[in-house]
Amino acid sequence: MVAGVVSQGLGGIKEYVYRGLQQLPIVLASTSLIYTVATGSLAHLNIFAGMAFIIPLVTFLLQLFNAWFFNMLAPNSIFWKRGSGDTCNMIPSGKQESLSYFDKAAPSGAVPSFWIMQISFFIGYCISNAADSLLTPAAQGSSDINHEKRNTHAILVIVTTVIFSVLVLGMRLYFMKSCEGIHWGGLLISFIDSAGAAGIGYGMYTFSRKCGARSSDLFGVLSQILPPSATSPHPVVCSAS
Amino acid sequence: MYDKINSFVMETIFPVCGESLRILPDSMVLGVAILAGLSMSKSMGVLLFTMFEFMIAQRVLSMIIGGISPVGAGENVLQGICQPGFIFPNKMRISLIETVGVPSMFPSPSMFFLSATLSYMLNAMQNFGREIKSLSGELKTRTNIAMVLSCLFVLAMMTFRYSYGCESFGTLLLSIILGFIMGALVVHQNITLFGRDGVNVLNIPMILSGIEKGKPMYVCAPSDI
Questions:
Q1: Which of A48, A70, B37, B93 could bridge to A80 as Cys pair (CB 3.0-4.6 Å)?
Q2: Which residue of A has its CA nearest to B200?
Q3: Hey, are the CB atoms on A32 and B31 less than 8 Å from each other?
Q4: For the segment B64-101, what is each residue's pLDDT rounded down to a tens digit?
Q5: Domain ranges of chain A
Q6: Mean of pLDDT values over B184-201
Q7: CA of A226 vs chain B CAs: smallest distance (Å)
Q8: B65 min Cα distance to partner chain A (Å)
Q9: Residue A127 and residue A70: Cα distance in Å, rounded?
């Protein structure tokens, strides 16, 4: 009985993670929307705007360009095409009768997919944020212990972000490889385009950084820095007894 | 041209928005879990724990209220758009909200969870009023904006579920009120359990007075006494 419950639980987790992975861009964008709404966070607003508007538009234009350009070089080739179907679709069609964990994708449009572009944007933003947290110098007169704590946290965030990126991209390529390109050529173009999306993530971080470190911080590392007014020597007031 | 724009809106924008709103409670749990894992932030970990607490609270409330007086369902409660959680292409559905919580008519799992989470975050921010006042005016503006946006978002979500006939108006309204009360109460519980830094959703530095740090206070007096 215990084995049955454990098996059912593990199966549930596997299905939850699998579908969560397929819909990861929606999951991350929705979470950022909720954080924007509930805390007025500029960092989350930028992530939401990037994932919901900027990246889909850029991806759509890239798909049009890739289809036009590569169709001239190799007309109707699978070289520049990506797979489609229920394994690749972020919104389920409800038409499939059986469930398959591995892709059975048929060729459709040009690379890149919305999925890889949106996730690359998110990773780009996170890595930029974590690196900036590490590289921001300590203010004059600030506590060495606090600076050390901040650096340790920033390194930890970089490590977890890298692990997350490797895991997510690895699972995507293992389970849904053809969604990013049927041929190795398509995969290569997808990776080049997704590097561009990560660059846009960096750009969005730099943009939100202009509003202040506290506003652009996603992980609560830079937010912990006290403003100069808080670290200046306190005035002492003495009154007559 | 009009037809193309119309079909783009109806076939691309609407399904994505509908799906995002439908999976919202479950996507929030997964999203917060990812952010908590990435940031290693205590407040995000506590928020994740709190979300599970809301699901259990919804299960308990549903059992109590359903036992006293069964509540009628909305007219389209069984339609796909009203069902939270991740749906597979073969229509298999998996939802944490309805696994840890329970599918019920009252309180509505989606609305109760959403309003409780928003209320928790807003109340947690209000608990840092002293810090917000001291740090900058910008943070004060942020909290005011958050209050207005949260109310508008709950209203939009309520309209969405009511217009699709997922729940009746009374059920939605009472689920929201119950969620707001629950969120406010859990903030105080978490402060007791995890300390103030456990509910620091803005991740701002905390101001601790000399008494809180356990340092002695000195009073200056004229030297000729």
A1: A70
A2: A220
A3: yes
A4: 887 777 666 677 777 888 888 888 777 778 888 888 88
A5: 24-83+108-223
A6: 93
A7: 7
A8: 28
A9: 32
